[in-house]
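Minimal example, chain plus ME8.
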Amino acid sequence: MKQNNFYITTPIYYPSGQPHMGHAYSSILADVFARFKRNENNQVFFLTGTDEHGLKIQKAAEKSNLDPLKYCDKISKVFKDLTIKLNLSNDDFIRTTEKRHHKAVNELWDRLVKSGDIYLSKYEGWYSVSDEAYYSSDEIIEKDGKKISSFSGSPVEWVEEESFFFKLSSWQDKLLDFYEKNQKFILPISRRNEVVNFVKAGLKDLSISRTSFTWGIKVPNNDKHVIYVWLDALTNYLSAINFPNLNDDLYKNFWPASVHVIGKDILRFHAIYWPAFLLAAKIKPPNRIFGHGWILSGEEKMSKSKGNILNPLEVIDTYGIDELRYYLMKEVSHGSDGNISLKNLENCINSDLANNYGNLCQRVFSFIKNNCNNKVRKNKNKSTADDKLIEQTNELTKNLKSEMNDQNLNNYIKSVIDISFLTNKYINDEEPWKLKKNNIEKMNNILHLSLDQIAKISILLNPIIPIATSKVLKALNVNMKETNYSFLEGKNIITDEIVIKNLDILFKKIN
Ligand code: ME8
């Protein structure tokens, strides 16, 4: 199989508060793609990290009575610990306060100066510190006597200060042309349309430096200005692969990035500003921006400022990390917003993991242990029921790779769990326990096919629930790296005669 390189990123998180479920969701989604691509035996570089400059962080540090860097050291560590709790397979964790990052940001700035895309002027307009975003007057509404952004609902303040500008307006047509030529640059399609319409309506030049505070990367040769935090933050994707060293293997192998996974609230920065900066700096834009929806609690976006947070760490301690990963990936529709609750999480664990996939593994493994001394052998004579199950499975797996490649994880998971359901049904119908005395050969075939199905389902679910599926694959002596997804092309996964190892209960039912 041809090996390709994949560079997959999560957003880098603001260490302005404790991590919440939205952060967990973005990270797990990106991790699932990264694991899937690795399981296909591709070279993968998966990045996450923290976004540590700007007024939002400076204010958070002041509130904690800490120097900004000390404050960031402390909270960035909380996010780094979260990567372990979430079982992320990231290859690096970047902090924008690191030297390597400053180097990359300086280089990008210099390139934009050289290309003639930066000029000095004065910014007069609205700014939201919590979004670190500029808004035009027609995006501002008044609520309870306060000015807020109609887009995010965050409070805005009026800013007037000297600022460097990026000539975004001159990139409007080139961006539209770029979107046209790269139809899958922004997914899902609804987000793509949103961006195209916004750009078509006209782009204004963008303020890219601030003078009223100091916590940021200084504009080269002008200490009075710090670089706008979004120009700084977006560059993390380049600094982590050693830009500006263009001869570095990481840069050569992994740029342009394959996909930046982000939430829809930061789509404008990634799908408009970022490709414009890069095109101006003569660097290829990434291949894809995938903008997922929000996790909601009731009708509202779950966020610290709204105080409606389901704490991912508490959920993991109570229910387990595979359980949370599965629930978020299956139940939250990736394009649109999704409501989550503990009740739904429990229902999902019971119906899909404990009663379906977990039960399938347990019943087959314990039957073979108790009745076959852990050993089964496949025989030649397949039954029509066997053929039917194989056919149905082939049908359900037909589009799985493309579903995953288009970040269509909900469909992917639904198909795989259907395979598990059908396999349970096959066992119920075929009743291997009735064949113990007089048809050992047929019983062996049923059990062998069931194990084969379990192997397929486990490989397919591995990127989503890596801990449980690894236990199953180990008990089946299947090596993920050797096997990858070759069964989708008809290769056998398990040997004709197979001796299984012990398998403990995978998922406990919640009462
Ligand atoms: O935006 N549901 O950082 P951040 C789903 N530092 N996703 C959510 C969410 C929710 N309720 N709340 C937040 C930043 N997110 C910048 C990124 S990248 C160069 C810089 C997602 O910590 C949000 O959409 O505020 C974003 O993708 C990510 O969490 C980080 O949010």
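The first strand starts at residue 5 and ends at 9. DSSP finds 19 helices and 20 strands in the chain.
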